[in-house]
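Notes from the 1:1 (GR / supervisor)

We went over the backlog. Supervisor wanted to see one worked example end to end before approving the batch request, so GR pasted a single chain during the call. The sequence is below; no edits were made to it. Supervisor asked that the structure be written out right there so they could see what the output format looks like.
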Amino acid sequence: MDLDVPNKAKKEFNKANDSIAQQNWKKAIEQLNKALAGYPNYVAAYNNLAVVYARLGDRQHEREALQKAVSLDANFSAGFVNLGKMAIADHNYQEAETNKANVADPNNPQTLVLAVRKEVAGLQNLLR
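Structure output shown during the call:
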């Protein structure tokens, strides 16, 4: 999906990765938004934006960035895994149950762990 990214957007994305490594979250958000302005379908940029928002504790923007990423790439398993983890943390077991992580990449160890966590969470919910 991200194969056609213009060079200017790639440069901003790479700068953002450097800012993330330096834990300069505000700068990373600015750079990722510049990358997205240059290429609005940049799945990896939305994913990294979600990572930054997660570090800042901004769950609403984290969720929005992940949802945008998976809407652009229905096979983006990392996005589905992260959305599933958020649903479980929020005790939203129905959302976790319908998460597509295991469909997007059934051989990914994280998706298998998520599937088990969903089952355990569902059982815990029944026992309450």
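Supervisor's comment: DSSP finds eight helices and no strands in the chain.
Batch request approved.
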